[in-house]
Amino acid sequence: MAIYDIKVTNTKGEEVTLEEYKGKVLLIVNTATGCGFTPQYEGLEKLYKEYREQGFEILDFPCNQFFGQAPGSDEQIHEFCTLKYNTTFPRYKKIDVKGKNQAPIFAWLVEQKNGSEKGKKPSWNFCKYLINKEGEFVKMFGPTTKPESLEGDIKAELAK
To answer: Does pTM top 0.85 for this prediction?
Structure first.
């Protein structure tokens, strides 16, 4: 299965595929609004504004599985992110990123391999997965990796 075949649910409750992102570099992030890493929204938005016109997209998947740090409805999460951090990148319905109810997008991510490196299960909020223009897994970045440190990897993928 290709990433573009995967179905996700948008914040309006509509099931859509990721096909609209074909040919773009993607950064898929599991997020939370009440986490010590929540301020990373600022860095993510900065990257998005800088590289969106070049074919870069950030896909935000809120997740409440790590000590309940993404409470609230999808509407409340969206409001928090747009008002506090002025985020403009696409946000999807809150999902499970691990366990028996793991969303298909995260099941796909953790099964991908790039050379000897395999995608890893999210260990916490704000794990970041870089996908190239062909829809292939490039690299996974852990929660402590600040968005601004991904700029070189993003630029390299956009240049290909």
So the answer is: yes
